[in-house]
Amino acid sequence: MAVDKKDARSGKAPKKESQPLIIAKTPAEQQRLKLERLMRNPDKSAPIPEKPKEWNPRGPPEFVRDVMGSSAGAGSGEFHVYRHLRRREYQRQDFLERISEKQTLDEKYIEKVKENQKAAEERTVKRRKKREKLKQKKLAKKAKMESQKEGSEEKSSSSASEAEEQEDDAEVPSFIMGKR
């Protein structure tokens, strides 16, 4: 009881249960531990890092003060300045090449997507026409069958009287060949 009163007087909240220290051995396990920690308190906002900005080189200077010529008498320190300027210019050119390559790849991708959409649309139109054609064929076949049924009913009524006459004349065979 004395311990409880001491905690209450100090104004501090009682300590949480200590979690066992788990060391992640694989990246998947590390990710799982991070997710578990985030899901313990879902009301707390999760930190989402911003996308790092793309490196952009400095543009070439408009006015160069120390023009290096090929004259004799350049000091030993001038080479290092020249080397640094040359390296920076090569980096800038590489960056511009990468940007232009990325733009061409993006343009090719967009063109390919448009071609794929166009091809898919053409296939859809072709298949739609085929379905409609089959549907028309099916309807025509159905109409033909109905007209045959109507024609056969008319013929059967007239042939019924003929059949009665034939029954009188001849004996009816037990089977008929060639008809179903």
TrEMBL record:
InterPro entries noted in UniProt: Prkrip1
Biased composition (Basic residues): 125-142
Pfam families: DUF1168
Phosphoprotein is among the record's keywords: no
UniProt key word ATP-binding: no
Region (Disordered): 1-22, 37-84, 115-180
UniProt keyword annotations, A-Z: mRNA processing, mRNA splicing, Spliceosome
Biased amino acid composition, Basic and acidic residues: 1-18, 115-124, 143-156
GO molecular function: double-stranded RNA binding; protein kinase binding; protein kinase inhibitor activity
Any one GO CC term of the record: nucleolus
Extent of Acidic residues compositional bias: 162-171
Family (UniProt): Belongs to the PRKRIP1 family.
Name of the protein this chain belongs to: PRKR interacting protein 1
Organism: Cyprinus carpio (Common carp)
Gene designation per UniProt: LOC109080118
